[in-house]
Write a structure and sequence with these properties.
The chain has 271 residues and is of the alpha/beta class. It has a single domain, classed as Luciferase-like domain (TIM Barrel), CATH 3.20.20. It has ten helices and nine strands. An eight-stranded parallel beta barrel has the order 1-2-3-5-6-7-8-9, surrounded by six helices. Helix 3 runs parallel beside helix 4, helix 4 packs across helix 6 and helix 7 crosses helix 8. The protein is globular and about 50 Å long. The N and C termini lie close together (9 Å). 40% of the residues are buried. It comes from Kribbella soli. GO terms for molecular function: alkanesulfonate monooxygenase activity. InterPro entries: F420_MSMEG2906, Luciferase-like_dom, Luciferase-like_sf, SsuD_RutA_monooxygenase. Keywords: Flavoprotein, FMN, Monooxygenase, Oxidoreductase.
């Protein structure tokens, strides 16, 4: 990182980290558990699942497991990695209950939970489980109302969380979502090429300045799809991305690409 990078993108001071999203679809739980253990052994920094009730690809009625009960199991089954949902759907649980669930998982893991949250989007989940789908704007408004409740509940719980639980917000909406990131999040997660992410970072930086927050406090995260670090690593790094997340789906969780990213991370952080 150059002096200019530090000035223009203070979030570039974070070290490079690698995440793995273990998509909990089309696999038995034993396969998911083995994959998480293998990822921790490889040296990944963060392991994510997702918060859906049905597969997002492949057979629509295929094998699938629930998010937060799984996270509680991961809290016991892992020792070093941080972990969380990429991301929890705000619509599916009362915010105060969700805060309590997160606090409990935080304690089970001795303080390794990342609290990922978003407004929700997968209509089949809503229809099948009886939640009102509403509009994208309405779901974002609900997220904006939920975040202060979650923060307030963490302060009221006995015992309190083991640490200030890092909040990750996913989504790229510039008028509402990134405002919520500026106000509430420690990590922002988005998708896109370097040019797209650089633009989102700039918008987020402006929202931070509007409320008087240092944009360097917010780690920038992105999904890398099926791209290798040789393809996109430097370009994403140059625009300030520091948490790079690989995704893998069942039934056969291939971690070859993850190994490439972990090796690249070690090279980057050694410079």
């Amino acid at each position: 990182m150059t002096a200019s990078d530090s000035t223009d993108r203070p979030y570039g001071a974070f070290p490079a980290r690698i995440g793995l999203q273990v998509q909990p679809q089309h696999a038995q739980y034993a396969d998911i558990r083995r994959t998480v253990a293998a990822a921790e052994e490889i040296g990944v920094d963060v392991v994510f699942n997702w918060d859906h009730f049905y597969p997002l690809s492949g057979e629509p009625e295929g094998l699938h497991f629930e998010c937060w009960t799984m996270l509680a199991a991961w809290a016991e089954a892992t020792e070093r990695v941080e972990f969380g949902a990429l991301v929890t759907c705000n619509s599916y649980r009362n915010p105060d209950l969700l805060a309590d669930m997160a606090r409990t998982v935080d304690h089970i893991s001795d303080g390794r939970l990342i609290f990922g949250i978003g407004s929700g989007w997968f209509e089949k989940d809503y229809d099948e489980y009886g939640y009102e789908f509403g509009t994208a704007g309405g779901r974002l408004d609900a997220l904006g109302e939920a975040l202060p409740r979650i923060e307030q509940r963490w302060e009221k719980l006995n015992p309190k969380p083991t640490r200030d639980i890092p909040v990750l917000i996913g989504g790229g909406g510039e008028k509402k979502t990134l405002k919520l990131v500026a106000k509430h999040a420690n990590i922002w997660h988005g998708f896109g090429d370097a040019e797209t992410l650089a633009h989102k970072h700039a918008v987020l930086d402006e929202h931070c300045k509007t409320i008087g927050r240092d944009p360097g406090e917010i780690e920038r995260s992105a999904g890398v799809g099926d791209k290798s670090p040789e393809d996109i690593g430097k370009s994403l790094l140059d625009v300030g991305t520091r948490l790079f997340t690989v995704s893998s789906s069942g039934p056969d969780y291939d971690l070859g690409l993850l190994r490439e990213w972990v090796s690249w991370r070690d090279e980057v952080n050694a410079k």
